[in-house]
Specification:
By secondary structure, the protein is mainly beta. It has 2 helices and 23 strands. A hairpin with a 2-residue loop joins strand 22 and strand 23. The protein is globular and about 55 Å long.
Length: 229
């Protein structure tokens, strides 16, 4: 029964998958259908060249809003997704990537969003990029992870009207496990081989490898840690 439902979902998703691939990639790439995008994903503002793949092309190597993620996670929420690349924004894939159901990705202005190879995120994740967000290889997101590299709105000093810097790049290293319900905000940096604990908020740069970061805001709570999927 599960295989049958998956086949039905695949058939329903083919029109949107065809549209997305031929809308965003050159014909020589699009013909291979590298991106599988679910029928219940809203696509907005994509254009030729807005998505780039810097690796060997294979069919359905990038799945958007198609898989269900971990069993039992947020099943009461809608499975619809959102994929938007506005203005001169770009999304770069350096290998295979999987975004489970409920994913929302938004790139504004000249934002550059980069995913390393073997990226995997669970249900209901949100990524908003206005300047630059770079995610390394072999990164795993839990459910309901939120990442943004901007304040979203202008913030200013009421005494002299000076405006705060609205954007600052976010960098997530290689082999990072980001736990569920984690927020990663503008200017954050996470070194390779780290773990981000459940319900944490990363607001600054962490240069130390093999650490567990946790808390709101996050701090180093353990050193010399490793993890495997």
């Amino acid at each position: 029964m599960k295989k049958l439902m998956l086949l039905i979902k695949l058939l329903l998703s083919l029109p949107k998958t065809l549209f997305f691939n031929f809308k965003t990639f050159p014909f020589r790439v699009a013909i291979h259908l590298p991106v599988l995008i679910s029928y219940n994903t809203k696509i907005s503002n994509v254009r030729k060249g807005s998505c780039i793949i810097n690796s060997k092309i294979s069919r359905f190597m990038i799945k958007v809003n198609f898989t269900n993620g971990s069993d039992g996670v947020n099943q009461s929420l809608k499975n619809s997704g959102f994929f938007c690349i506005k203005d001169e924004g770009t999304i770069v894939f350096n290998g295979k990537a999987n975004f489970a159901s409920g994913v929302s990705i938004r790139v504004d202005d000249k934002g550059s969003l980069v995913f390393g190879s073997n990226f995997d995120c669970n249900r209901n994740c949100f990524i908003a990029c206005r300047e630059n967000i770079t995610i390394g290889d072999n990164v795993l997101f839990g459910w309901s992870v939120s990442i943004r590299d901007s304040n979203g709105h202008k913030i200013y000093n009421i005494l002299d009207n000076t405006i705060d810097k609205n954007t600052e790049p976010v960098k997530i290293g290689n082999h990072i496990w980001v736990g569920a319900n984690v927020d990663i905000l503008k200017g954050a940096e996470i070194a390779d081989d780290c773990i981000i604990g459940f319900n944490s908020c990363v607001t600054r740069k962490f240069k130390e490898r093999h650490c567990t970061l946790a808390g709101y805001p996050a701090k180093i709570v353990r050193e010399n840690v490793g993890w495997v999927r």
